[in-house]
Amino acid sequence: MIAGCTSALRGGILFLTLDTRGSSVNVFTPAVAEELERELRAGLAAGARAVVLQSAKPGSFVNGVGLLLAASSHTQGAAMERTRALRRCYASLAQAPVPTIAAIEGNCYGCGLELALTCDYRIARDSYDTQFYMPELRDYSFIPLFGGTQRLPRLVGLRAGMEILLGDRLDARRAARIGLIDWLAPESGVGGELRSFLTGLRGGGWQKRAPRTAPVSRPPRFEELPGPERRLARECVRLARLPFQRGYRLENGLREELTSFWRSLGRKESERAMSFFFVRQAAKAHAIGSASYERPRRLALSVAGRTPPLRKLLGILSSRHLPGIDLRPKGSIAFAAARVPGAFTCVLGAGPRTGGDCAAFLPFPDEPAPVIELVPATDGRPWRRGAPLFQVLEQAGLAPVVTRARERFVSQRLLRAFRDAIGSAPARRGLHEFGYRLPQALADKLRPGGSARGIAQRVSAALATECVRALDEGELTHPSQADVLAHALFGFPVVHGGLLRYVASRRSASARAAARVLGRAQP
Questions:
Q1: 8 Å CB contact between 273 and 263
Q2: Backbone angles phi, psi at 271, to 5 degrees
Q3: Measuring CA to CA, which of 142, 228, 402, 475 is 20 to 30 A from 101?
Q4: Distances (CA, A) of 178 to 100, 116, 158, 212, 256
Q5: With contact defined as beta carbons under 8 Å apart, do 128 and 140 qualify?
């Protein structure tokens, strides 16, 4: 049975195609890694002059495996056993005696980016669903384990490499500007660019790329990071400096990276951060009936941009175009200020109860990943009819959250609770030290100062209390939705787990209420 990698040798070129069985995205599991290594070895033995690594999954080159690997490894021996096949595959690709090319169409996350870094060359499609992102530090609170801290700084420099390792998302154009990828292909696909590049390689005698090291540069300032992220950032920059030392050997750097990965994995912060991934999955499944990451192959959207919120949304969707998702004057899904005949209408800018098929609230449209609250007009749960809309918004880089708000959007209720909890007290520093990643428009209105224990705990309790009310009133239908909304709206830190779980661990009336609703969700 094929786990997720097939091969074809055509014209002396070995094409390795990733297509994880039973998944909407590519996940680089040990079984897939063993298949890739086996197909690579067989292709080289058959006389391959170059290797192309590509994906058959729309929107996904490789979406990772580090989290699942870490979450299922309870001892260091288990972690080493599970990573052995993966590390051997990375080494085999990096040491291939012929040129290797990663043809990247779709998201390239975590170990997927580390896999692409083992190739000599990288070609990427210029579309919004081709994103480069290392989630390990920011989302899961552990050190990368497949060479990211060693190969990234060496390729793009210490500063740019650290910015990626700390959680900056790059589209293909920015990746090309900093040298992460070598060629930018049009949105229609990488096929033409790949053929031209292979022709050039053939004319040059199939030469491999000579190793190179970027000039030394300064790392970014850690003071700008939320408090809980700084400790791992310091360890990450220590590892990232290794390639610039005299006498450096990659195998030694990779060994130190793996040791740091295990140390970081043994922390409570990492355990809580990893658990939040499954909170997100639960919230999405309760919202639309599926946690899968996929969208319609073809879909027409329209945005009647007459109001400020609609103009903002039009700007976001126009600049983040997804293949197959077209903005037209008339679409099967319409964003508007009132119902559009013949279209599934999402009314943006009014209250939660409108004449459309759903209502929407976009409180911070200028954020990189703005939260958008969606309120279906019908009571059916899950909201399967809204799944195409949810998936498109998510893949366009927004953070959709489905609620059953009535008089006010739940986001509005939480923003009011946030402001009331702070009042006129100094708060910006305290919330930052605790780990909140507030939207800039919200952070700019806060007074400097405050303590992590004081103001952050008060704000967290106030938000949890309002979430409990929304759950009791049926405006939120599952605790995971409260946790995701608190994270998307205020940047509640994943190292504390979900908002409700954190507050439930305290001793107060709000803690008892949070524990009650969490208990209600348990089987």
A1: no
A2: -60, -45
A3: 142
A4: 20, 15, 12, 15, 26
A5: no
148: left (phi over 0), alpha (psi -120 to 50) or beta: alpha
Residue 179 Cα distances to 230, 399, 516, angstroms = 26, 29, 51
- Cα separation of 180 and 352, whole Å? 43
Q: Which residues contact 204 (CB under 8 A, 6 or more apart)?
A: none
Model confidence pLDDT, tens digit, residues 403-444: 999 999 999 999 999 999 999 999 999 999 999 999 999 999
Q: What is this structure's pTM?
A: 0.93
What φ, ψ does residue 416 adopt, rounded to 5°? Answer: -65, -45
Beta strands at 60-62 and 170-171: parallel, antiparallel or unpaired: unpaired
Give the C-alpha separation, 233 to 260, whole Å: 12
- Mean pLDDT of all residues in 108-118: 97
Q: Are 327 and 302 a contacting pair, CB within 8 Å?
A: yes
Q: What is the DSSP letter of 509?
A: H
Question: Cα separation of 432 and 309, whole Å?
Answer: 28
Rounded CA separation 153/119 (Å): 15
Please say whether the beta carbons of 61 and 107 come within 8 A. Answer: yes
From first CA to last CA, the distance across the chain in angstroms is 35
Question: Which H or E run includes 336?
Answer: strand 333-336
Question: Do you find a cis peptide bond into 388, omega within 30 degrees of 0?
Answer: no
Amino acid identity, residue 204? G
What is the number of other CB atoms lying within 10 angstroms of the CB of residue 363? 19
Please say whether the dihedral angle defined by the alpha carbons of residues 271, 272, 273 and 274, taken in this order, is positive or negative: positive
Residue with tokens 């692409």: 116
Angle (CA) 397 119 198, round 5°: 100
Supply 454's token pair.
């004081």
**In angstroms, how far is CA 263 from the centroid of its own chain?**
23
**C-alpha span between 443 and 412 (Å, rounded):** 16
d(CA 389, CA 343): 12
Name which of 391, 399, 397 is nearest 129 in CA terms: 397
Q: Write out pLDDT tens, residues 13-38.
A: 999 999 999 898 999 988 999 999 99
Alpha helices in 307-449, H assignment, sequence order? 308-319, 387-395, 410-422, 428-434, 440-443
364 vs 414: CA distance, rounded Å: 14
Confirm if 165 and 150 have CB atoms less than 8 A apart: no
**pLDDT one-digit tens code per residue, 454-487:** 999 999 999 999 999 999 999 999 999 999 999 9
